[in-house]
Specification:
about 180 residues; alpha+beta; 7 strands
Length: about 180
């Protein structure tokens, strides 16, 4: 929200590979380290095996690394929760990992500020058959409801991966206006 901040430097959606993205809540410097390791693993898989990595392999590595840092004295655990989404073999995948290194697959999930309130709405109103456009409208509606007068479309960046294209697309700013009523 700082007017002096260059918006392009404050992303919370990260591209791990063309077909995998992640979002984080917590200490972003911890996120950066985990994303760097994830990107390296994804590229090693492409070079050595000649194919894109499975999203579950990335979340498992992230979760294992987080869990490892909960065991050792003198090592601070990673203070970040992450959501990872990706497309593989014609299917979409969504995983979430907490600060302790647990991870689970989800149909829909939320992390960060107001996550419990958001999850309540997701449990009540989420429908698996939503299109990407419907999903963006739904998410922005949730934030509009929760943030009320503090809702500011300029704070949002949306990332999605279509199953047919297997490539991350980002939208923000004026492109999001068509999704808000």
């Amino acid at each position: 929200r700082d007017k002096l901040l260059v918006p392009e430097t404050a992303h919370k959606i990260f591209e791990i590979d063309y077909h995998i993205m992640a979002a984080a809540a917590g200490i972003l410097s911890d996120t950066r380290i985990l994303i760097d390791h994830s990107q390296l693993l994804a590229q090693q898989n492409r070079v050595s095996l000649g194919s894109p990595i499975e999203p579950v392999a990335i979340i498992r590595m992230i979760a294992d690394r987080k869990q490892m840092f909960t065991q050792y004295g003198g090592a601070r655990p990673y203070a970040v929760a992450m959501i990872l989404g990706g497309v593989s073999k014609g299917k979409s995948h969504l995983y979430s990992s907490d600060v302790y290194g647990n991870y689970f697959a989800y149909k829909a999930n939320a992390i960060g500020e107001n996550d419990e309130r958001i999850k309540e709405i997701l449990r009540r109103d989420y429908k698996e058959e939503m299109s990407i456009d419907d999903g963006i409208k739904f998410c922005l509606k949730i934030f509009k409801e929760i943030l009320e007068k503090n809702f500011d479309l300029g704070r949002f960046e949306v990332g999605f991966i279509k199953i047919s294209e297997e490539k991350l697309k980002r939208i923000s700013g004026d492109e999001l206006k068509k999704f808000v009523k």
